[in-house]
Specification:
Elements: E1 4-6, E2 13-15, H1 16-29, E3 33-38, E4 41-46, E5 50-55, H2 66-77, H3 83-93, H4 100-117, H5 123-136, H6 138-145, H7 151-162, H8 168-179, H9 186-200, E6 203-210, H10 216-230, E7 233-240, E8 248-252, E9 255-258, H11 261-273
Parallel strand pairs: 6-7
Antiparallel strand pairs: 1-2, 3-4, 4-5, 6-8, 8-9
Helix pairs in contact: 2-3, 3-4, 4-8, 4-9, 5-9, 7-8, 8-9
Length: 274
């Protein structure tokens, strides 16, 4: 009978003759380690005579089936939300997402698009104006972006600032976003919402930075030029910044067209210094 040794009262039984054979195999084959698994335990024999026992790693848990995920949404949100909302959430969770964060981003985008579709107002321009207000008021940006602040209080503050000055859709989008920032800055939240709204309207957003406001004719010509270049309708958002001195700086998504005097002066100084 082979010599056997227990590894604890309910542990894995180790055949010592097998261990010796495995050790000899290591020497003959040039391998550095051999591992044998027995149920939920495993034995490892390594070159030099080392023997180690450990619990085998559990098999990875399979992701819940789409039907199971849909049932969770129905059970949790069905009693308190409208059927249309539950339907959208159910459809979203049944899709394939690389991470939970991507799923939340997707649901957030659905909400912004739904608010846009339900409104005839210029939600995009209203959100842009609010983002400029935030940018011009550091105390307001701090109050809305602080991690210590109460989420509902932030939402109430945005609603108080915008009610009567913006559409219900804009108030809803902005107040909801500041309550769920997920490590994003306020202006970042608003910029993403502006892009989503513009996309829903079939446009791209061009942020134009100039030393002074553009005339109606200048804005029209620039919009037409950018529309031809990018092959889509363009929504022009203008930022007044006297430091650009003159000219324009245009940004569309990741594309930047810098025709400002300040940029040319900076380039000239760099060339002179070099």
């Amino acid at each position: 009978m082979a010599d056997r040794k227990g590894a604890g009262n309910s542990g894995m039984n180790v055949d010592t003759s097998l261990v010796r054979e495995l050790a000899e195999m290591l020497g003959e084959t040039g391998l550095t380690e051999i591992e044998v698994e027995d149920g939920d335990r495993k034995i490892r024999v390594s070159r030099g005579g080392g023997v180690a026992m450990a619990a085998a790693a559990p098999a990875p848990m399979a992701a819940a089936a789409p039907a199971a995920r849909a049932k969770v949404i129905t059970d949790v949100f069905g009693p308190s939300m409208a059927p249309a909302t539950v339907g959208l959430l159910t459809n979203a969770v049944q899709q394939r997402w690389s991470s939970a964060s991507d799923l939340i981003d997707g649901i957030e985008e659905l909400a912004v698009r739904a608010a846009t579709i339900a409104s005839d107002a210029d939600v995009e321009s209203e959100l842009f104006e609010f983002s400029r207000t935030v940018a011009a008021n550091p105390e307001l940006e701090l109050a809305l972006g602080s991690r210590l602040g109460d989420a509902s209080a932030k939402g109430d503050l945005v609603a108080k600032l915008l009610t009567g000055r913006a559409s219900e859709a804009t108030v809803l989008v902005a107040s909801s976003l500041v309550q769920q920032p997920r490590e994003r800055r306020v202006r970042q939240l608003l910029s993403r919402a502006i892009r989503i709204v513009a996309d829903e309207r079939g446009r791209a957003v061009a942020t134009v930075t100039a030393a002074a406001a553009l005339s109606a004719e200048q804005a029209s010509r620039l919009t037409e030029l950018l529309s031809r270049r990018y092959g889509t309708k363009i929504s022009l958002n203008t930022v007044i910044d006297p430091t650009v001195v003159g000219g324009l700086r245009v940004q569309i998504a990741d594309d930047v067209i810098d025709m400002s005097v300040s940029s040319r002066l900076a380039d000239l100084r760099q060339r002179l210094a070099g």
